[in-house]
Amino acid sequence: MTITITAFERSPDGGKGLARDTRVRWALEEVGQPYQVRLVSFRAMKEPAHLALHPFGQIPTYEEGDLALFETGAIVFHIAERHAGLLPGDASARARAITWMFAALSTVEPPILELVTARLIESDRSWSAQRMPLVEDRVRVRLGQLSRRLGDADWLDGAFSAGDLMMASVLLRLRASGILDEFANLAAYVAHGEARPAYKRAFDAQLAVNTGKPPTG
Question: What is the number of other CB atoms lying within 10 angstroms of the CB of residue 35?
Fold first, then answer.
């Protein structure tokens, strides 16, 4: 059965790989599964046909036969469960990889998204200058904890897994802020993720949608 995912017709980031469909594309590329992409406009995302797939009117969604999924974490987890390459065979290592997926989305990403909101949406508010250091400090606390845990390892728990895919994707959102570069091992960790051929294919495919140029790979 053909896998179909949805993505922005025009991504707000202009194709820099920050839209969440990139995470799903990356997972599918890692496990070698072909897929189709249905592009949706912001208007179409709020219409009944899309809301039937994603009740919150967002992207991505995942369709395969009678199965329809939303939420990036759930989609990547489904892909990792169904196809070899993103979860270890050992039961304990597998459980740890899944834990890192949850940690990326539930613990590390929320303060990063708060920072993104503060910079892009709230920067013109009268209280923004006073609030910004607090928001940035919350991000630094999480990155410090993650940095200490990672140490000088390439990946979070042995071999690359879905946990690394999610964590690197989350950390990518920090690059423009400069905060990621304050933690050399985390910056290197993200670079290792970006260097993976599967990530490059996913990134190029998403970029091509926004530039109109075919992927180079």
Answer: 18
Helix-, strand-, coil-residue percentages of the chain, each rounded to 5: 55, 10, 35
Rg (CA), the chain: 17
Domain coverage including residue 43: 3-85+198-211
**What's the CATH code of the domain at 23?**
3.40.30.10
The whole-model pTM stands at 0.92
Q: Quick: pLDDT tens for 148-205.
A: 999 999 999 999 999 999 999 999 999 888 999 999 999 999 999 999 999 999 999 9
Rounded CA separation 185/150 (Å): 8
Residues 138, 190 within the same domain:
yes
* Same-domain status, 203 and 187: no
Among all chains, which residue has been given the structure tokens 């990792």? 80
Statement to judge: residues 95 and 191 lie in one domain: yes
Contacts of 148 (CB under 8 A, 6+ apart): none
Contact predicate 78/63, CB 8 Å: no
151 and 120: one domain? yes
Cβ distance 166 to 23 under 8 Å?
Answer: yes
